[in-house]
Amino acid sequence: MKRLNLFTLLLAILMVGCNAQERVLYLQDIENGAEIEIPESYQIRVKPLDQLTIVVNSKDPELALPFNSASTYTGLAKGAGSSINSSSLQVFTVDNEGYITLPIIGKIKCDGMTRSELQTEIENRIKQSSYIADPQVNVRFATLQISVLGEVTRPGRFDVKSDKITILDALALAGDMTIYGNRENVAVIREIDGKNVVTKLDIRSSEIFSSPCFYLEQNDIVLVSPNKYRAASSEINQNRSFWISLASTGISFATLLMTIITVAKR
Question: Does 115 share its domain with 156?
């Protein structure tokens, strides 16, 4: 009988451990060596109200200066590989219709373009204008951020240094989920055509690779909801605080009543 009880106890512990792993492990349905095809090579694309820095270079630095009219770029004379102080760069804001306006060549439709596509478009426009025969254009996002909130170690707003970032990268930036994060209910909030669109992801499943929100976009919000254990713990703490407060009030009232009675007897 003792052996049977011990076996039952060990079996229960094992089952609890397996259930706990199923709640917290990422990508549980992927086997070792599995190859998962990514739908397309993804890069963040320009959107209205994005802020961009654009620098035009040439073998003849004097020809490029009018395109960089906001300030003096000391690195231009060294060619396209020069390092330019980012604090001196002119920032171009994409308007609501998806255009930027550049010196000399005017408006360019850039909504939906990648950085490399926009660089090529600007270079072609400069060549067509016959201003520079060998333009070299460098486009960067001046501000590119995502937010990660909820049950993560370091919630906050993070700068993105790369042209592509995945939901897993975002969680890593925030120090990963806490043990109380709900892995099967991670929401990505994205603005599309003036509306906030919410997409739910199950980080435990390889299906996240085919989600349109596996790769994040600028200003996306990742929201990690608490699991039922965090919710239960919060409710217990609230109830405990209520009863402690109630007991403290009762003790204070009883003490005051005893004081009044003592004074009355005197």
Answer: no
Q: Which of 111, 103, 19 is nearest to 64 (CA)?
A: 103
Q: Which amino acid is at 67?
A: F
Give φ, ψ of 191 to 5 degrees: -85, 120
Residues facing residue 166 across a β-bridge: 215
Q: pTM above 0.85?
A: no
* Closest by Cα among 116, 131, 145 to 219: 145
Q: Determine how β-strand 156-159 pairs with β-strand 145-150.
A: antiparallel
AA letter at 166: T
Q: What is the domain count for the chain?
A: 2
pLDDT tens for 81-117 read 444 444 467 899 999 999 999 988 999 999 999 999 9
Of all helices (H) and strands (E), which one includes residue 199? Answer: strand 195-201
190 near 197, Cβ under 8 Å?
yes
Q: Has residue 99 been placed in a domain?
A: yes
The span from the CA of 159 to the CA of 21, in Å, is: 32
Structure-token match 């407060």, residue found? 245
Q: Reduced to 3 states, what is the DSSP secondary structure of residue 26?
A: coil
Let me know whether 80 and 111 are in one domain: yes
Query: What amino acid occupies position 58?
Result: S
Q: 196: closest CA among 170, 219, 229?
A: 219
Tokens describing residue 158: 């993070």
d(CA 65, CA 186): 48
**Residue 113 lies in domain:** 51-141
